Amino acid sequence: MIRALHTAATGMDAQQQRIDVISNNLANVNTTGFKKQRADFQDLLYQQVRAPGTTAAQGTFVPSGLQVGTGVRTAATHRSFSTGDLQQTGNQLDLAIEGNGFFQVTLPGGEVAFTRAGNFELDQQGQLVTTDGYPVDPAIAIPQGATAVTIGADGTVSATIAGETAASEVGQIQLVNFVNPGVCRPSAATSTRPPPPAAIPRAARPASRASARWRRAFSRCPTSRSSKR
Protein backbone atom coordinates (compact mmCIF):
# COMPACT_ATOMS: atom_id res chain seq x y z
CA MET A 1 0.00 0.00 0.00
CA ILE A 2 2.82 2.39 0.84
CA ARG A 3 4.54 1.58 -2.48
CA ALA A 4 1.30 2.22 -4.38
CA LEU A 5 0.95 5.65 -2.78
CA HIS A 6 4.56 6.52 -3.60
CA THR A 7 4.16 5.37 -7.22
CA ALA A 8 0.99 7.39 -7.63
CA ALA A 9 2.71 10.43 -6.10
CA THR A 10 5.51 10.27 -8.69
CA GLY A 11 2.88 10.34 -11.43
CA MET A 12 1.22 13.40 -9.92
CA ASP A 13 4.56 15.16 -9.59
CA ALA A 14 5.47 14.39 -13.23
CA GLN A 15 2.10 15.66 -14.45
CA GLN A 16 2.49 18.79 -12.37
CA GLN A 17 5.83 19.50 -14.06
CA ARG A 18 4.21 18.87 -17.45
CA ILE A 19 1.47 21.37 -16.62
CA ASP A 20 4.13 23.87 -15.49
CA VAL A 21 5.86 23.58 -18.88
CA ILE A 22 2.60 23.96 -20.79
CA SER A 23 1.48 26.93 -18.71
CA ASN A 24 4.81 28.67 -19.37
CA ASN A 25 4.33 28.09 -23.11
CA LEU A 26 0.84 29.58 -22.94
CA ALA A 27 1.98 32.55 -20.85
CA ASN A 28 4.59 33.45 -23.48
CA VAL A 29 2.43 32.88 -26.56
CA ASN A 30 2.84 36.55 -27.59
CA THR A 31 6.43 37.00 -26.39
CA THR A 32 8.84 37.81 -29.19
CA GLY A 33 11.57 35.22 -29.66
CA PHE A 34 10.05 32.63 -27.29
CA LYS A 35 10.70 28.95 -27.98
CA LYS A 36 8.17 26.51 -26.61
CA GLN A 37 9.22 23.48 -24.57
CA ARG A 38 7.93 19.96 -24.09
CA ALA A 39 8.50 17.62 -21.16
CA ASP A 40 9.80 14.07 -21.64
CA PHE A 41 9.27 11.31 -19.09
CA GLN A 42 10.83 7.96 -18.21
CA ASP A 43 9.96 5.20 -15.80
CA LEU A 44 11.86 4.74 -12.56
CA LEU A 45 13.72 1.66 -11.34
CA TYR A 46 11.87 -1.65 -11.07
CA GLN A 47 11.90 -3.87 -8.03
CA GLN A 48 12.59 -7.41 -9.20
CA VAL A 49 10.59 -9.80 -7.07
CA ARG A 50 11.37 -12.85 -9.19
CA ALA A 51 13.86 -13.08 -12.04
CA PRO A 52 12.86 -14.74 -15.31
CA GLY A 53 14.05 -18.36 -15.61
CA THR A 54 14.12 -19.12 -11.90
CA THR A 55 13.23 -22.58 -10.68
CA ALA A 56 9.77 -23.12 -9.26
CA ALA A 57 8.94 -25.38 -6.34
CA GLN A 58 8.06 -28.26 -8.69
CA GLY A 59 11.43 -28.05 -10.40
CA THR A 60 10.12 -26.27 -13.44
CA PHE A 61 11.49 -23.00 -14.79
CA VAL A 62 9.40 -19.85 -14.58
CA PRO A 63 9.38 -18.24 -18.07
CA SER A 64 8.32 -14.82 -16.89
CA GLY A 65 9.71 -12.82 -14.03
CA LEU A 66 7.94 -10.57 -11.58
CA GLN A 67 8.87 -6.90 -11.56
CA VAL A 68 7.14 -4.00 -9.86
CA GLY A 69 7.67 -0.46 -11.12
CA THR A 70 8.26 2.43 -8.76
CA GLY A 71 6.79 5.27 -10.82
CA VAL A 72 7.79 7.94 -13.32
CA ARG A 73 9.96 11.02 -13.42
CA THR A 74 10.49 13.99 -15.72
CA ALA A 75 13.60 13.14 -17.71
CA ALA A 76 14.12 16.38 -19.64
CA THR A 77 12.53 19.39 -21.25
CA HIS A 78 13.24 19.99 -24.93
CA ARG A 79 12.95 23.36 -26.64
CA SER A 80 11.58 23.57 -30.15
CA PHE A 81 13.58 25.84 -32.46
CA SER A 82 11.24 25.61 -35.44
CA THR A 83 10.37 28.86 -37.21
CA GLY A 84 7.22 30.52 -35.90
CA ASP A 85 4.63 32.57 -37.73
CA LEU A 86 6.13 35.69 -39.30
CA GLN A 87 4.42 39.06 -39.00
CA GLN A 88 4.87 42.20 -41.03
CA THR A 89 5.49 45.06 -38.59
CA GLY A 90 6.42 47.96 -40.84
CA ASN A 91 9.58 48.53 -38.80
CA GLN A 92 12.61 48.60 -41.08
CA LEU A 93 14.81 47.20 -38.28
CA ASP A 94 12.66 44.16 -37.43
CA LEU A 95 14.16 40.86 -38.61
CA ALA A 96 13.13 37.22 -38.65
CA ILE A 97 15.25 34.08 -38.84
CA GLU A 98 13.91 31.45 -41.20
CA GLY A 99 15.50 28.15 -40.26
CA ASN A 100 18.38 27.66 -37.85
CA GLY A 101 20.57 30.30 -36.26
CA PHE A 102 20.84 32.93 -33.52
CA PHE A 103 21.60 36.63 -33.49
CA GLN A 104 24.71 37.59 -31.50
CA VAL A 105 24.57 40.39 -28.96
CA THR A 106 27.11 41.81 -26.53
CA LEU A 107 26.21 42.02 -22.84
CA PRO A 108 27.37 44.89 -20.59
CA GLY A 109 30.28 42.82 -19.26
CA GLY A 110 31.57 42.10 -22.75
CA GLU A 111 30.22 38.55 -22.94
CA VAL A 112 28.44 37.33 -26.07
CA ALA A 113 24.87 36.01 -25.82
CA PHE A 114 22.51 34.63 -28.43
CA THR A 115 18.86 35.32 -29.19
CA ARG A 116 16.21 34.50 -31.79
CA ALA A 117 14.38 37.79 -31.29
CA GLY A 118 14.98 40.26 -34.10
CA ASN A 119 12.98 43.28 -32.91
CA PHE A 120 15.95 45.65 -33.01
CA GLU A 121 16.13 49.40 -32.34
CA LEU A 122 18.68 52.23 -32.46
CA ASP A 123 20.29 53.69 -29.33
CA GLN A 124 21.48 57.27 -28.80
CA GLN A 125 24.68 56.62 -30.76
CA GLY A 126 22.81 55.06 -33.69
CA GLN A 127 23.92 51.52 -32.84
CA LEU A 128 21.67 48.59 -33.66
CA VAL A 129 20.58 47.15 -30.29
CA THR A 130 17.97 44.84 -28.76
CA THR A 131 15.03 46.22 -26.79
CA ASP A 132 17.20 45.78 -23.66
CA GLY A 133 19.92 47.96 -25.19
CA TYR A 134 22.41 45.17 -25.97
CA PRO A 135 24.32 45.94 -29.20
CA VAL A 136 24.43 43.48 -32.06
CA ASP A 137 27.75 41.67 -32.49
CA PRO A 138 29.56 42.65 -34.67
CA ALA A 139 28.49 46.23 -33.93
CA ILE A 140 26.49 48.10 -36.57
CA ALA A 141 26.04 51.88 -36.40
CA ILE A 142 23.62 53.85 -38.55
CA PRO A 143 25.07 57.26 -39.57
CA GLN A 144 23.45 60.46 -38.33
CA GLY A 145 21.04 61.91 -40.87
CA ALA A 146 20.18 58.56 -42.47
CA THR A 147 16.77 58.74 -44.14
CA ALA A 148 16.32 55.01 -44.77
CA VAL A 149 17.81 51.71 -43.66
CA THR A 150 17.62 48.52 -45.71
CA ILE A 151 18.74 45.01 -44.80
CA GLY A 152 19.50 42.53 -47.57
CA ALA A 153 18.78 38.80 -47.60
CA ASP A 154 22.45 38.16 -46.77
CA GLY A 155 22.26 40.40 -43.70
CA THR A 156 23.96 43.41 -45.30
CA VAL A 157 22.80 46.65 -43.67
CA SER A 158 22.73 49.76 -45.87
CA ALA A 159 21.77 53.33 -45.03
CA THR A 160 20.72 56.18 -47.30
CA ILE A 161 22.09 59.56 -46.20
CA ALA A 162 20.14 62.75 -46.82
CA GLY A 163 21.29 64.38 -50.08
CA GLU A 164 22.67 61.10 -51.49
CA THR A 165 20.94 58.85 -53.99
CA ALA A 166 22.90 55.63 -53.42
CA ALA A 167 22.78 53.68 -50.15
CA SER A 168 26.04 52.99 -48.30
CA GLU A 169 26.84 49.68 -46.63
CA VAL A 170 27.33 50.11 -42.87
CA GLY A 171 27.69 46.50 -41.71
CA GLN A 172 26.39 42.96 -41.87
CA ILE A 173 24.26 41.01 -39.41
CA GLN A 174 25.67 37.55 -38.76
CA LEU A 175 24.02 34.45 -37.33
CA VAL A 176 25.56 31.68 -35.25
CA ASN A 177 24.47 28.08 -35.74
CA PHE A 178 24.86 25.26 -33.18
CA VAL A 179 25.11 21.52 -33.69
CA ASN A 180 22.47 20.93 -31.02
CA PRO A 181 20.59 24.11 -30.09
CA GLY A 182 18.23 22.07 -27.94
CA VAL A 183 20.78 22.02 -25.11
CA CYS A 184 21.06 25.81 -25.02
CA ARG A 185 20.13 27.19 -21.64
CA PRO A 186 17.88 30.27 -21.61
CA SER A 187 18.77 32.80 -18.95
CA ALA A 188 17.64 36.21 -17.78
CA ALA A 189 18.74 39.13 -19.91
CA THR A 190 20.74 40.59 -17.02
CA SER A 191 22.74 37.44 -16.22
CA THR A 192 26.36 37.07 -17.24
CA ARG A 193 28.11 34.13 -18.85
CA PRO A 194 31.61 33.25 -20.04
CA PRO A 195 32.38 34.26 -23.63
CA PRO A 196 31.97 31.44 -26.16
CA PRO A 197 34.65 30.49 -28.72
CA ALA A 198 34.79 31.88 -32.24
CA ALA A 199 31.35 31.93 -33.85
CA ILE A 200 30.41 30.76 -37.31
CA PRO A 201 28.36 33.38 -39.19
CA ARG A 202 25.28 32.74 -41.24
CA ALA A 203 23.18 35.07 -43.38
CA ALA A 204 20.24 36.80 -41.71
CA ARG A 205 16.73 36.88 -43.08
CA PRO A 206 15.21 40.40 -43.13
CA ALA A 207 11.87 42.04 -43.86
CA SER A 208 9.64 41.06 -40.96
CA ARG A 209 9.51 40.88 -37.19
CA ALA A 210 10.99 37.87 -35.46
CA SER A 211 8.29 35.30 -34.68
CA ALA A 212 5.77 36.89 -32.35
CA ARG A 213 5.31 33.55 -30.60
CA TRP A 214 8.88 33.28 -29.44
CA ARG A 215 10.49 34.66 -26.32
CA ARG A 216 13.11 37.39 -26.15
CA ALA A 217 15.49 35.17 -24.18
CA PHE A 218 19.22 34.83 -24.39
CA SER A 219 20.91 31.45 -24.47
CA ARG A 220 24.08 29.87 -23.20
CA CYS A 221 25.11 27.07 -25.51
CA PRO A 222 27.84 24.42 -25.72
CA THR A 223 31.01 25.04 -27.67
CA SER A 224 30.17 22.62 -30.52
CA ARG A 225 28.91 24.43 -33.58
CA SER A 226 27.86 23.36 -37.03
CA SER A 227 29.57 24.22 -40.29
CA LYS A 228 28.99 27.50 -42.10
CA ARG A 229 25.71 27.78 -43.92
Describe the overall structure.
This protein has 229 residues and is an alpha+beta fold. Helices cover 11% and strands 27% of the residues. The protein contains one helix and 14 strands; from the N terminus they run αββββββββββββββ. The strands form six sheets. The chain has a three-stranded antiparallel β-sheet with strand order 6-5-12, with no helix packed on it. Strands 9-10-11 form a three-stranded antiparallel β-sheet, with no helix packed on it. It has a two-stranded antiparallel ribbon with strand order 1-4. Strand 9 and strand 10 form a beta hairpin. The longest helix is centred in the first third of the chain and has 26 residues. The chain is rod-shaped, with a radius of gyration of 25 Å. The C terminus is likely disordered.
In short, what is this structure?
This protein has one helix at about 1-25, and strands at about 35-45, 45-50, 65-70, 70-80, 100-105, 110-115, 120, 130, 145-150, 155-160, 170, 175, 185, 220. The chain is an alpha+beta fold.
Give the C-alpha Rg.
25 Å
> What oligomeric state is this?
single chain
Secondary-structure class: alpha+beta
What's the arrangement of strands in the largest beta sheet?
A: 6-5-12
Number of strands: 14
How much helicity do the residues have?
Answer: 10-25%
Low-pLDDT stretches are 189-220, 222-229
Series of secondary-structure elements, N-terminal to C-terminal:
HEEEEEEEEEEEEEE
Number of helices: 1
The mean pLDDT is: 76
Shape: rod-shaped
Gap between N and C termini, in Å? 58 Å
Strand content: 25-35%
What can be said about the biggest beta sheet?
Answer: 3 strands, antiparallel
